[in-house]
Structure formats: structure tokens, C-alpha cells
Amino acid sequence: MVVPGPDHIEERERVYPPPEELKADAHVPDFSSYLALYKKSIEEPEEFWGNVADEFYWDSRPTAGHPILQYNFDVTKGNVFVKFMEGAKTNLCYNVLDRNVLERNFGDRVAYHWEGNSADHQQDITYSQLLKHVCRCANVLRLMGVKKGDRVAIYLPMVPELVCSMLACARIGAVHSVVFAGFSADSLCERILDAQCSVLVTADGVYRGDKLINLKQIANEALERCREKGSSTVQKCVVVRHYALRTNTGEASNKLQTPWDAAVDVWWDEALDGVCDECEPEWLEAEDPLFILYTSGSTGKPKGVVHTVAGYMLYTALTFKYVFDYHFDDVYWCTADIGWITGHSYITYGPLANGATSVLFEGIPVYPHVGRFWEVIEKYRVSKFYTAPTAIRLLMKYGREPLLKYDLSSLRVLGTVGEPINPEAWHWYHEVVGQGRCPIVDTFWQTETGGHVLTPLPAATALKPGSATLPFFGVQPSIMSELGEELEGEAEGYLVFRSPWPGIMRTVYGNQERFETTYFKKFPGFYVTGDGCRRDKDGYYWITGRIDDMLNVSGHLLSTAEVESALTEHDSVAEAAVVSRPHAVKGECLYCFITLKDSTEFTHTLKDELKKQVREKIGPIATPDFIQNAPGLPKTRSGKIMRRVLRQIARNEKDLGDLSTLADPKVVEVLFSQRCEAAA
Ligand code: 6R9
Known about the structure:
Shape: globular
Number of strands: 31
Distance between the termini: 24 Å
Family: Belongs to the ATP-dependent AMP-binding enzyme family.
Structural class: alpha/beta
Domain Acetyl-coenzyme A synthetase N-terminal: 34-96
Radius of gyration: 24 Å
Helix content: 25-40%
Low-confidence stretches: 1-11
Organism: Alosa alosa (allis shad)
Strand content: 15-25%
Enzyme class: ligase
Bound molecules: ligand 6R9
Number of helices: 22
């Protein structure tokens, strides 16, 4: 185990109590209210979830006499399953649109402020406009023969039609499979084939920053590849005229050639033209599938995570309300892409279920300038802001100056998701962005969990920078030793969950066996997250990174995240990634990739300082053996560092495996050419 040095303890002991001014009208105003609600959610789930369900429309109620949540997590006792509200019938689209328009009178309320890649492209969409648009799209899908249970692939940038097509699927009971629009043709093809999608929705083209991407071309290549494999199921391809209608307005000439196959392709606007804007929803069983979302798996083949209607609806709605302490006058902005689970749960479903007004942002943080995020916050008076540590670290590089030009006084709550946040980034987010006023909700969750599972609540939970704090309602975390013993009190090991909450995944699409093997085999009776975790003396949970990012140096377990955070606390370091490299005596040793802040030089003195810093922060056991200058790091398109690739570079292994999820393959070459031969 890591022996924390003095600084390490000090950092972890600092506690930030919730701000008083949030308490007056907070949904969960203090810690004792959190504890009481938590207790109720575990001890009286019928009552707890029954109350949440009362806020929604049900075409029929659950079968009487069944427990609200039925499950088996123990592979040794039969198939793993989770059933929530068995017998109930509802429709998620009806609940997030019709209910808001008809019952709550939110028709004229803005659902989304769409903000384009370029600052002069924008559009406000109200709840009633969205409802009509969704109904027309749903009718078009029905006309194309899409029925309940059929799969629809959606390969779109962050445009209103993305939300619209997801909801149209939900309305008619089709299962959407959104594929992030930065994925390659191969990845799209693989996902289309796995789910046997009958329709693909895409767009002509899109600007990401100043780069124009011919999305339809990529979609065509994907369909071509599906055909080559002899099993294309796609009958129709609906193409949103995004480049041509929205972003190309000021340009002299059309820069895109949009390949077209009249037998398959149809323009979105032409297909919807004149189609009725009312559409009877399909009343679905609580456990009917809602969507598939692919997440990477250790074997290289992505897993189609399946979520179902009722549990996902209630869980995303409730977490959104409590974790962001959502109120009617909030303007909420989550900067994630809807191609990832964060966007599904906290741009599409959770906010709409609450009738919220959100920013739907197509752009990137540094285009057309490095103050874009702050400009958008000022423009819409954003009060709840949710982003990723990688974005924070990127923006930190430019210092305070870009923020000073904008009024960020509307901000109330900040959130992070995606990876452990290093204390340096946490403090910058807290002090520079939140001006010390705004609590940071560090939300730990996964594609598989559907919604937040470990998270603070803004007015109730005292914060410790870097800790995702405590379980959300209905969630029972546990820490497991390698031997499968549940550890009590202060402990470090595998993060597992003892029982399901309504939003947990139900299976891997078409592969129940893989579902059971991946998540339930290691510790029968428990859902295994794959993350390492430490519980401190106050019962707070600290994610230490994926278990496969754990290192064993001379018999001591170290987490890469911990070393990375020690490194990024150095003034010259913008980002750090640490991997293990085999070592003759220690078993494994640390190989560190360092991205420096602008205009800093990579010198021997700096290397020595960094080694000293890690030694001081964590202990001599964590002293890096190798420190390499890394102008860029290999990242997935969602911003996660691909440590697998870095491990191969550290070991000088040229076989890098599947690189299709890599955002910029060029960085790999550069890193290979500059790798360290000898220990630092
Ligand atoms: C929502 C999302 C899941 C993995 C997860 C963990 C890491 C996410 C985190 C976090 C520490 C947090 N992760 N949130 N680690 N603190 N607040 O990111 O889903 O893309 O499936 O990734 O991300 O390692 O297991 P997904």
C-alpha cells in the first residue's frame, strides 16, 4: 500500500463545506437530509422509487405484489438480471416532451439553446417545437418501416436533430444506437453490424473548430464496408442538411461533395416535409430496451451496453435534479458530446425529464478562441456547468486571463466527470472558474451505471478535492480485496456494488454471457466496476483509476492517477500520464509522460524537480524511473488517455493493437521517436 507523505495527507484532509447560500432552497439542504433519504432509498425502495415514479406518466402501473426492484447478481445462482417496475407501461419521450407541454405548460420554455461551432450560429428550441419535430421524425421512421424493438444508428454531430432522432426512436419504441460522430468508418460499421440497424441517421458535414468533416462520406464508407462483409441491414440513410443549411450560409462556394445513393439516401428536411406533427407514442414495458451505447472492452471489441425504459428514465431524472440541485430558473450546460453516456443521460434525458433549459454546444473549448467556454457561460447566464477534467486541464494552460473578460457570476454549481480530477485542476476549477463560490460535484459513474453513482450533492456534502464522496440514493458501494473479502472502514481495493439501482445496464446487446463475465464473474453477488477505490476514515470514496491502471512497485500497490496528480501539481506541468514498465528488481516501475505548459523547457533540472515532487507527495516508492517529454498524449476522442498505447511506447513494443478510437494518431510517432532509453 502507498505510504502517504505529509503533503499528501494535508491535501486529502482539506474539506470544503457546502456554501450556505445554496441551502435555502436546495432539494437536499444538509447532510442529515441526505442521510435520511439515503437510508430510505435502501431500506424502503418501494416507497422511495414509488414517490419518484409518481411524478411521471404511466399508461399502466406495475403488477401488484412484485418488489419494485427484482434482481440476481450472483452468477453461481443463475442468470444475472435486473427488473424494475415490472408490469408498468410508459413512454420516455411522452414523459420528457408531452408531459412538459401538456401538464406543466412548458410549451414556450426553451429546451435547448443550440450554440454552433461558430459563435454566430445559434438557435433556440422550445419544448413545443421539439415535440412537433420529434413527432414528425417518429412518423417518418414509422413510414420507413421501423417498428418497436428495431435498431436505428445515429451518427450525428451536436445538432438539434441528434436529440430529436433519439427521442423519435424512444417514442416509437425503436432502440437507438448513437455512434459518436468522431468515430471512423470502421467503428461505425462494426456498431451497425453488431446491432443490425435498419436505419442510419447522419449529416452532410460538420465543422469541428476550423476543420470541415465530410460526415456523409464517412457514413458511406461505413455502409460500403458493411456490404463488403455481406450483411448490411441498413435500408435507409436519413441525412441532415447541417453543413448546407446551417453552417455554409456565409461561404462563397460549397466545399463538400455529398455522395448520394438515391435508393437509400433521403434528406431529413425533405423526408419530414408535410409529415404530421402528431404521433401516438408506443406504450412500452418498463423493461423494454431504450438504447444501446457501445463502450470499449478489454478484448478490443466494443460492448453494446443496453439500458431500459423505466429505470433509466427515473434514475437520470432524479440524479439530474439532486446532483445539480436543479431549479426552474437554471440554465444548465454539459459540454460532453451526446455520443457518450454523459450526453445521453445529462444532455438529453435527465434535463428534459425535469423541463430544464440547457445549452447544446456543437463547438470545442478553444475555437475560435480559448475563452469560448467562458463566453458561452456569460452569453446564456449558465448557472450549472458540467465538464471533464481533461477540458479543465487544457484550459488551465492558458491561465486566468481568458476568463477575466467574461462575467461568470451566474455560475452556482460546477461538475466534473470522466476521470479522477487531480487536486491542481480541482482548485483551478474551484477558484478561477467558480470564484470560490461554487461547489464542485465530482460525479463518478460509467456507461454501464446509466447515471451518477458516487457523487456529492451541492448543498449537503462537504467536498474533498479529488473524491467523488458518497453514494447516490439506492446505491450500495463496497470495497473488495483481491481475495473477494468485503473490506470495512478505511480500505483500498476493487470498487463493486452490492445491489442494483434502477439505471444500471441490463445486458450486453446480444451477449448476455459477456455481460456476466465482464461484470459479475470476479466477485459473485457483486457488480464489478473495474475501478480501484479507496475509502477514507470519513467513508468518502476516492477513485484511484481503472484497476488495470494499478501498478505494483516492489509489492506496493500504486495508482497511476495518484502519481499523475503529484506531477501535475508542478507549476510547469500541464498534463501527465503514467504507465508501468517491467523492472528487473522492482517488478514494475513508473514511466511518466509529461506535457509541459506553453513555453516551458524540458530540462534535467525539471526532471529532478519532478522526481522530488512525486517522492515528496507520495513517498520514495513512487519515484519515477522514466520521465519523457510528451508534446501531446494519445487520447480517445472523448478525451481519455489511452494508457494501453503509452505502455507499449514505454516498453518499445511496436504492436499497438486497435487504434481506431485514437483521436490523433500522429502523437504516437512523436512519442516513439522521443522515448527514454535509460532511466532518468
Ligand atoms: C461517465 C463516464 C467510465 C470510467 C469509470 C472511471 C472513469 C468517470 C469519474 C471517473 C474518477 C470520476 N470515471 N467518472 N473516475 N472520478 N468522477 O465517463 O462513462 O465513458 O463509461 O467511463 O471513467 O474509470 O470506470 P465511461
